[in-house]
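Reproducibility note. Readers wishing to regenerate the assembly model reported in the main text can use the exact inputs given here. Chain order matters: entities are listed in the order in which they were concatenated for prediction.
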Amino acid sequence: MTANTSTYLELWSDSFHEGDWAVDHITRILKTPNVNVTMEYVKGFIPRYQFRGPEINLCITVFGSYRSWTRLPKMISDMLDWGKPDLILYDPESKRILFSVEETAAVPTGNQSLQRCERMYGALRISVPFWYLITEFGMHVDGGVRRDSIWPTIMALKLTRGKKTPCVVLHYSDIDNPEDYSTGKGLESLFNYLGGIVANFAKGMPVFDGIEDPLSEQFADMLRFVKDQWGALVDFLPGSEKLDDADLPKLYARTAINQSLGTYRWPVNFLIWPQFDALPRTVQAGQIGKQLIKEDPLCEIFEKHLSQKKAYTLSNRTGSRPQPGAEIAKWITKQRRLFNSGGVLEPHAEYTVKPSDFPKSKSGLYHVTTAKNIVYLYNRWGDVQDAIESAFPRLKRKITGMDPAKPTLVYISNSLKPGRIFGDPFTGQIAAFATIFGKLDPEPRYVLAYFPHQAYTQAIAGEQDKSNKGLTLMRELTDMLLFGGGVAVALQSNTVL
Amino acid sequence: MEQYSFQLTEEIARWRFEVFIKSCSAWFIAFTNPTAGPWKRVMGRNKDGVEGEVYRFPRDANRPDLILVCDELKMIAIIEAKDSLAKLQVDNQLSKSARVVENLSDILAGLGENKFWGLRSRYSVCAGLLWGGETGSSTEHREALVERFARKMGKGKAITIRQYICIEVLKDAASGELTVSVYVPKRQAGIRGLPEAALLRTFMPDR
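Running the prediction on these inputs yields the following structure tokens for the assembly.
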């Protein structure tokens, strides 16, 4: 005898391959001697799986290539504005997303490591459970093997706690088999878990029923990864001594599925980056401003503020990626044209970036990197505003309504190519850093994003539709954008200063 | 089920053809170029049918949309896909596609030592063009397209392409049903490939 009532799910995916691949893995979990699985292609190409058994009568239809479809379910369409996750499992009856998944074979090195983090934020902001499957070890273009960054994992931990929804990073591969999906336990863990959610749904049970223990294991793996890897990337991690606390995985799992925490208690200030004075002494002592690679009036002050203990940064291990001179000249011309299209500003502002500003590297290419740091954590917004007004006097008395005592995250992107800052990997960086360093903390930080080489006009919503995922994200996660020539934009109010 | 309508994009046209190929046991898919995932590698099979990696594209390399293998005919098909015939007719596109076929043919011919590829390094290469549409193309259109495509070959590596195929994925305007047709052009820039019937037989779905 089989369950009489048929339940339907739709698996939306970036490509049919990914959708079909996912259902194939879920099938391995659901298929038992009592469950019969059939598959047909609707209209010759849309995979539809039917699961029939004593407790299950479930149909999953795979829709690949989101943008090929008209009248997407609204919840999916809204989520895609924040970037396209690879998989979204949707219940058309309740119009609810059960989970979304991002999986990537991309090498998690340099800028790439934070690429796609905006998708994580896009799901969690509307309380959609999210799993990110990424290779732990990847082959760099130089032939060496690199290990994944800690930031996506820390972002997931903070989102889980802040949004009370599962946000999980799972790793596959190992050092001897970089980028190999079949190595490591990430892939198996992902589909064991997702299969469990689908089975619960099909049986009419709460989708998170029986999920606490496997979810705890996933969080335990994430915490172990951070413990192993943080020292290679940063000088200080708040709560690092608590990473192997036996209660932590349970705390995350219960928070994620809205279960009582019982006797478990969160460690104080765990993963909350503190004010300068609360840093370990050795880290405080290491905060010394350095010479810039390419000159910039504002970054120069930021570096001085490190020495003055007004701000701190995470490490000095970032590098510079020089660019060809011809490209730099071309991009500057385009940026100037964009800047001038904004008309006359009051007080006067000018795009003064020129090719000779960019120092030549040993390879003959040109550095676009200003400060080596792209993140500064300030104790007070007042110090940031002083720096801005000192570097760009035209902004004196123009920035109002900000609380000078509020702590602030300053994020810098030195990118020069027009439009680049609104795409990968910068949107992922902003989403990750804003989440990790303060937007969800008990005492949230302001977020200032500084783009010294970009024209402000790219951030203004005018008559033409300039909606893109970068602007969507910055509108929600930043308090102010600052562009070349010292022009500030507040996206929430669409105001240019 | 909700009724959603779709546009016949390149992704859907290519996927439809892949579904078709899965029903033709003479061929297997060695590579497909969706946007992401564990499909970015060319895969082969050893004599026991076990799959393994044959080649991994460099990050910025131009890739074909599909690579198919037919052991029966000792043939590899390297296929470029677009959502319409018009997009394949653009001169630059044809040149780019020709370079991809030539470069990849050269690479695959050098993989004789790979245990999942081996003797396939000696297979002949068939260049394919795949497109989608709502109205069928004419024989003249297809012949002219392939003739232009063939003329673009031979300007890069010294690989001789002896065979061409065209794949048309048609959408029925009323039902949304997608059907696949495979054509072997008659004129192939003066180079004769396999007899049309022998090649088309391998594109017959298994019953």
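We highlight two features of this model. Chain A touches chain B at residues 8, 10, 14-18, 21, 41, 43-45, 48, 59, 61, 63-65, 67-73, 86, 92, 103-106, 141, 181 (CB under 8 Å). The first helix of chain A runs from residue 16 to 30.
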